[in-house]
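quick one, 286 residues, struct below
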Amino acid sequence: MIYLSHFSFPDAEREYSFLMEEKRTCYDTFYPFQVLSKRCLRMLDFEPVTILYGGNGSGKTTALNVIAEKLGLERDTLYNRTNFFEAYTDMCDYEVTEPVPEKSRIITSDDVFDFILNLRSLNDGINQKREELFEEYLEAKYSHFQMKSLEDYEQLKKVHMARSKTQSKYVRNNIMDNVREHSNGESAFLYFSEKIQENGLYLLDEPENSLSPLRQQELLQFLEDSARFFGCQFIISTHSPFLLSLRSAKIYDMDEEPVDVKRWTELSGVRTYYEFFKKHEGEFRR
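---
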């Protein structure tokens, strides 16, 4: 499915004209100006799966943030949005073949990381409460409590419950079960599976972070199935060789000047992996 078909960015000449008008002001940065224009990137044409490949500073994350800002996509965490973002996105334009669904969103590494931390914090809080209930149970069970007024009624209920139940039942009755604690990779994959729904446009910024090679392959299959069978369109920034092999993906090499479309096996990062393992091929046969 293709919702977003084209997205255009201002060229260097148009950026220069804007910056000359702003020369009377004092700013440390004009970001996102002068990032994508350095790569001579004027337009991206999208397929059901489009990948932006490149190293740090190549502009792939900037491109995703600009697209998300222009389209008003939902996101969970803040990002480096300078005073010039609005002016820059006003110079951008796009075309759609279908209206972009409201559920569409951008998912960044910070989103996933925050989700993992929140899940851990929730579990830590529950565990701490459990320890407090263990102490409360022992104190109530073996106390010589006597009710003296109605103000003692709640304590009486606790004592009665402690004396009539085992420690584990007492705790279970007073606290929710722990949210199932996942490894970082499991939690990250859970986040993607919850946020990516049918019939949506999704921008993914380096989704391989926090994922093992095995989990990256699972995400690969999940994304392929979502694009082929469930009406999703993906624009992904990555340098993961696993995700770069996504079936029928259109790949822009952001390390090239100008930006060029390549097959995943032509990318320098993938070739580096290939040559390394080819060099050590014999060691895998022992």
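The first strand starts at residue 4 and ends at 8.
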